[in-house]
What we know:
Blueprint: E1 6-14, H1 30-46, E2 51-54, H2 63-72, E3 88-97, E4 101-107, H3 116-122, H4 147-155, E5 164-168, H5 184-189, E6 194-198, H6 206-212, E7 225-229, E8 245-249, H7 254-262, H8 264-267, E9 268-269, E10 278-285, E11 294-297, E12 302-307, H9 313-323, H10 339-351, E13 357-364, E14 367-374, E15 380-384, E16 390-392, H11 394-400, E17 404-406, H12 418-426, H13 430-484, H14 490-536, H15 546-579, H16 586-607, H17 612-641, H18 645-677, E18 682-687, H19 693-702, H20 710-722, H21 726-741, H22 757-761, H23 766-775, H24 778-785, E19 792-800, E20 803-806, H25 812-825, E21 831-834, H26 845-858, E22 861-864, H27 868-872, E23 878-886, E24 889-899, H28 904-913, H29 917-926
Parallel strand pairs: 1-2, 2-3, 6-7, 12-22, 12-23, 17-21, 21-22
Antiparallel strand pairs: 1-8, 3-4, 4-5, 8-9, 10-11, 10-13, 13-14, 14-15, 15-16, 18-19, 19-20, 23-24
Helix pairs in contact: 1-2, 13-17, 13-18, 14-15, 14-16, 14-17, 19-20, 20-21, 21-23, 21-24, 25-26
Amino acid sequence: xDKGAHFHRCDLQVHTPRDHNWTxxxxxxxxxxxxxxxQLVQACRARALQAIAITDHHDMAFVEYIRxxxxxxxxxxxxxxxxxxxxxxxxxxxxxxxxxxQALLIFDADFPADLFSLAMTALTINPSPNGDAKTANTERLxxxxxxxxxxxxxxxxxxxxDRYIILPNVGESGQFSLLRKGLAGKYAEMPCxxxxxxxxxxxxxxxxxxxxxxxxxxxxxxxxAIFQTSDSRREDHRELAKxxxxxxxxxxxxxxxxxxxxxQESRVSQExxxxxxxxxxxxSISNSVFLGPVDLxxxxxxxxxxxxxxxxxxxxxxxxxxxxxxxxxxIADEDTPNYLARRARLIEQTLKPVNATVQINYDVNGVxxxxxxxxxxxxxxxxxxxxxxxxxxxxxVRALLPIQGYSQKQLSGVSVRIDELSRFITAPIRSELSxxxxxxxxxxxxxxxxxxxxxxxxxxxxxLDQRALEERSLSEQAEAIKxxxxxxxxxxxxxxxxxxxxxxxxxxxxxxxxxITTFKSGAESLRAMVTSSLAQSAPAPAEPDxxxxxAARAEQQALLTDAQTALDTLIAxxxxxxxxxxxxxxxxxxxxSLAGFKADYNAAVARSSTHAERMTQLRQIEEQLTRHVRATxxxxxxxxxxxxxxxxxxxxxxxxxxxxxxxxxxMRAQCASLTASSDGMIRANVKSYADxxxxxxxxxxxxxxxxxxxxxxxxxGESIVSAADGVIQWSAVLADLEKLAEVDPENEGNxxxxxxxxxxxxxxxxxxxxxxxxxxxxxxxxxxxxIPIPSVPIFxxxxxxxxxxxxxxxxxxxxxxxxxxTLLNQVGPPLVIDQPEEDLDNPVMLEIVEQLWKAKQKRQIxxxxxxxxxxxxxxxxxVAWCDYRTSGDQSRGVVAGEGAIDVPNVREAIERIMEGGxxxxxxxxxxxxx
Length: 930
């Protein structure tokens, strides 16, 4: 587990059998007390309590027994719990003060037991003998007239100072609450940052809610965090955890509780806290010329990397982004730096020389993922849950393990680039867009396949039209020759006349054979599929509903087996027909009949010696006609198989276009979400069919050498962008281009050029359209038709109420502030930003701080920062600080330490490293009047 702060469910007022109001048996002997302690620890585990404070009245006798039980607790397998999962036991006491009120005094969880008696002595409490079943009657500490005085008395002793927290009772009513008439001054002067209630916070009335919220002037405008407690004092633990509070800390100390009170929006919750569902759990770098080896575990909420300039904060973030393939724009221009080139140089200079790898552990909804990237070749491997490591692509990493990352000053440069704006919209919905893109890619491949069938169908229609003319010509020639013959016997003339009917009959027979051949081929393919399905059929699972699953699989197996048997029978039957097996086969009988007639026909032709030359010509024409007719029959049979090709192609095309619309709708919805999450500072819309650059560039490449100017080609793209309905214009342009792509250059002069109104309207001349027809090929048109015209997000900035200006016209600080506020309002993948303060205007820093408290409930945040307010008052759960490996030598850095703000050495590091660090902590205290 990381060294940062985490939420723990706490009940900070739990009593023991020593309490006078205890319901249940006594526990006097060590064995009885240990048995009670063990039962209490088990009850806490059953109620998902992670921390308790033992707060008997002016007594601490049971604390050590309960601590021991917590340390000895075992899991279901009998193994002891690791320290991080043990029940936390805070020593404490419930004090009845002369203020007058009651208060909980809670010490560090590791406060030594041998100091318990000294703590009571400091408060002039006369402890009851440990062996007694009950404590002595509680006597009010009349010598302590204020909570301020209580703190002063405790701080007189170095062994107590900074190791306790005082939580006064701030319940709605009763003699022990501080919120009573006449106690406003005591409340206003108290040095306390928190208080407790017996039971639910909802019991507080509106007046008292205003007091604890710091909205009551006469009470000093002092705001305190409230801890719900159960005030549990029953042997059956019926009340335990009934009212609890979730508190965040890294180490269970009184200071951690105080820091939680100082950032109650972030660290105290009466309901189970919301936490991000995805996040980076660790970054591991095997070696680095600059940083050396790094193993840094990250918190699921807000992580802050701090350190002097050049100590490695930015480097660490760039390593992380490189391993997760987070790609900022890679093409530099005059206005923006080339972030990708910078990162490439960093990898080349600091990781590659030592053959380093960067490994990121990433948790997605409780499922661990590991991605490892090798600096030598950029190769990637991924592991999901307990599977083995396997190679993967950058796209797979980006789809499975997304982040939103920005380098220094990148936020304030977003408006300069369309691709940056698009990334701002697409990053939160990357997984959804990836799924749509994958389906689009699959659909595009099916379009390519069906386009081939459609093209073949159209080619066959044209070929058959042409062959029909050729067939008619040959038939007419044969008939003319036959009519011109003279001197033939009536018998020979009758035989020759029959030739036409035999030819027609044979054409029918051949078409039947062709259809059987086609069927046999299809049946064999289907049989192969059935056989494969049978071989690969998964067995029925043993549970659940094993009998039902077995029956379902049996039905599937029976169906496929019957299909296999039926197909075998049909294939064998088709083979028998085609092979004309057996003397009774009508196919063999027809072949014999046709052969007999042909023999008679040839003999009749041979007897016509006076017309030898004409008869030879007739024989040649008839043989040519026979071949032609048989070939035509085969083409018609092929065409019948492609009867639905046009429909299938159009269906696939419509489905692809629907996916493009789905993508646009996702972006449109994200724009609406972004507008809402920016609180109106940004108005985002999607302009459909707004970026035809890829389409135009591809068309220009296909028409290279055609002498059509680039401006004319660009005008086609502009006609799509400027159209009232982009999709209609795009479809019209594609339709015109397809007509020209289908023009056969060899027959160009034999048919009029097709009408292309959209091309003409875009400014192409007739001669340019002719040259386009001679250059563009069908496969090139297909490629063009599958280049989508992307939608582009359009951003506007709210200059004043109901008045928006183009986003690019806002100042860099205004842009960055609006974008960062929006990012912090969004639910999304981990947000990684290097030094966001460099993009921001100082007056908005505290607004950003307040948004951070809510943002880290929705998404993991990783910032590198020099701004102490972002780290301290933003309440980073984990702070990691970088330093120079050797003092004064800025050539190498190191991750020098890590932890949470409630840990003293972390606060010291912040004050030492960060300019304004001490001021930020003071601001944190002053906000609460402490």
